[in-house]
Specification:
- By secondary structure, the protein is mostly helical.
- It has a single domain (8-105), classed as Glycogen Phosphorylase B (Rossmann fold).
- The protein has five helices and three strands, in the order βαβαβααα.
- It is globular.
Length: 106
C-alpha cells in the first residue's frame, strides 16, 4: 500500500509505527510517555525529528517540516525499511507465536 501523505506529525507509539510501516518521515510532538520515548529515537535513528509541544513556534515548525520533506536520504532509508517491514508482517508473526504457545499448553 502506498503512503497517502509525505509526512506524519504525531505524538504516540502507534502512529510512529504506522509512519515507519508506510515509509513516511515523522515529526513527533510528544505529549505522554511513549511520545517522549520515541521523540529522541526518531532523530537518533534518522527517521524523523521532534519538537516540544510547549514553546514551539510557527517558524520552528515550518523549518522542521521543510527539513524532513527535503531529506531525500531519509526518505530512501524509510522506503527500504517499509519494504522490509512489509516482507515480515509483525502482527502475523505475533499471532503465530501466540497460537504456538496455546497449542503447546492444551
Amino acid at each position: 500500500m502506498a503512503p497517502k501523505s509525505d509526512l506524519f506529525i504525531h505524538v504516540g507509539n502507534n502512529s510512529f509505527c504506522e509512519a515507519l510501516r508506510f515509509g513516511v518521515p515523522s515529526l513527533i510532538m510528544p505529549h505522554c510517555w511513549d511520545g517522549h520515548d520515541n521523540a529522541p529515537r526518531a532523530g537518533e535513528t534518522g527517521v524523523g525529528d521532534h519538537i516540544g509541544r510547549d514553546g514551539w513556534t510557527e517558524g520552528g515548525l515550518k523549518r522542521a517540516i521543510l527539513g524532513l520533506l527535503a531529506d531525500d536520504a531519509m526518505r530512501a532509508r524509510l522506503r527500504d525499511n517499509a519494504a522490509r517491514m512489509a516482507l515480515q508482517p509483525g502482527t502475523e508473526m505475533a499471532a503465530q507465536a501466540i497460537l504456538s504457545l496455546s497449542l503447546i499448553r492444551t
